[in-house]
Structures are given as C-alpha cells and as structure tokens.
Amino acid sequence: MARERIKVLIVDDHPVFRDGLRQCLEARKELQILAAVGNGEEMWKAIRMHGRPQIVLMDIEMPGNNGIELTTALAAKHPEVRVVMLSAFSDTERVFSALKAGAVGYLLKNTAPDEIRAAVERAAAGEPMLSGEIAGRVLHEFEREREDQRFREQLADLTSREEEILKLVATGESNKEIGNRLFISEQTVKNHVASIFRKLHVNDRTKAALIAVKLGLAGEKPR
C-alpha cells in the first residue's frame, strides 16, 4: 500500500523563490504541494480551498502579516499544522520569535534543495528542524536561559541580608568595608559570604559577583 504523501503549503512573497521551491519539492514524489502563495490572505484562502497541510514552509518578512504572526495564528487555529520557517535572516531575535510562535523548524534560504526536502519529511515525522548554524545558536541560547534560571533559583534562597551583602561584594567592597557600612562585625560578614558561596555553588567573590551582575542584582551600593 502506497504511503500517503505529505501535504505542503508554501508561503513566500518572492515569486521566483516560491516557484523554484515548488519545483524543488515537487521533484519528490513523497510530497504533495497544495499551493504556493505570497501572503497571509492567500494562505488562509488556500487552506479553505485545499484543506489543511501537514507542513507550511513560511517566509518571515512579508507584506501584511509577517511569518511569525501567521505562525502564531496557525498554531491557535490549526495546532496540528507544523510550520517550518524558511528565511534569509538568521539573527537570534527572529529565530527565537519564530520558535516561540510555534514553528517546529527554521531553515535558511540558502539551504540545499535536498536538505529542504529532507527537512519537510522529518518535520512531518515530528522532528524539530534547524539549520546547522542555527541549531548551535539555539542550543547555546537555551543553555544560557537554563543557567540564568538556575541562578535565579539560587538567588531566591538568599536571605535579605545575604542579598544586601552580595550587592556590596559585586561592587568590590571588602568584608571590613561591608561590615562598616552595615554596622556588623567583619566576622559576621565572613559568615554571610560563606553562606552566599554555598547557596550559589561558587568558591570565590568574583564568581558570586558575576552572578549578581548577570542577573541585574548589582547596581548602586545600598545606602
């Protein structure tokens, strides 16, 4: 029994690229191109006329609703439709906006035709699809966000006094200077600093200060 073909809808406002992409994909018998359209209004019309696609290859910058807005709308109205962004832009802001809007993949327009065809098939099978260049950046950004979240959770464990002392540590003040400022003994400051190190899982003032700066805790010295 023949496997059912993957239904694809192309949305891109550049006619030459759109038609070339259609020809590229139609060369693969496993793919069925429902339509190739140039904007959001035509996209909705094509869906009404041809039925829901499994995959939408979506440009980002288009007149009217851009690709990210259309992806958000598709995710709300037809959550089973999987959107793969196909864009000339690779900046982090667009990539993350697209993924947060519900896109399951992000490919650059200079991706080889065979890779685009393979990406469509893999996306239809439920796999996330990112260009190699973008995948590394996304992984790095997600790792950074996870690290920031871990730091925020650790900071939440600090007492108000420890947080106050950490801010002063981040400004470069010594234990003695902090004690004088807060009217507590230097030994008490040392005890607080040791507790801060333990809660933040660091072993020196520089690393503790970097966490404070990274999360915006360091600023003006407390009065």
Radius of gyration: 26 Å
The number of helical segments is 10
Distance between the termini: 77 Å
Morphology: elongated
Q: Give the % helix.
A: 55-70%
- Low-pLDDT sequence parts: none
Q: Indicate the proportion of strand residues.
A: 5-15%
Query: Biggest sheet: strands side by side, in what order?
Result: 2-1-3-4-5-6
Q: Indicate how many domains the architecture comprises.
A: 2
In the CATH hierarchy, what is the architecture of the largest domain at level 2? 3-Layer(aba) Sandwich
Task: Please tell me about this protein's structure.
- The structure is a single chain.
- This protein has 10 helices and 6 strands.
- It is α/β, with parallel strands linked by helices.
- Strands 2-1-3-4-5-6 form a 6-stranded parallel β-sheet, with helices on both faces.
- Helix 3 packs parallel to helix 4 and helix 8 packs across helix 9 (186-200).
- It is elongated.
